[in-house]
Amino acid sequence: MRREEINSLFGVTDRQLDSMAEEYENGTWKGHVGAIRPGRPRVFDEELETISFRIPRSRVKEIDRNARERGESRSQFLRRTIDQALPA
Question: For residues 43 and 83, what is the distance between their CA atoms, to the nearest angstrom?
């Protein structure tokens, strides 16, 4: 996920984050840090299932190239592409 997408999810801009970081570092930040949970954040509200299938190597290279251009991992690219192809 690109930085802009993450910022959008949390409703902040880079400028706001820089300002908060400066306040935190000089001891004037009025915010608070929530609970820290170890591990990777959940991608979905439901449990994920791994699937495996074979495709030609050239298609994998295209998937990786497209994902890289969008600043996504292979998994993020494939999930987004499948979500766009299937009805909600």
Answer: 14
pLDDT on residue 52: 94
What does the alpha-carbon distance between residue 87 and residue 26 come to, in Å, rounded to a whole number? 49
Mean model confidence pLDDT for the chain? 90
pLDDT at 1 over 80: no
The DSSP H or E segment spanning 14 is helix 14-25
Nearest to 41 by CA among 81, 17, 6, 68: 6
Are 77 and 66 in contact, with CB atoms under 8 Å apart?
A: yes
Contact 87, 79 (CB under 8 A): no
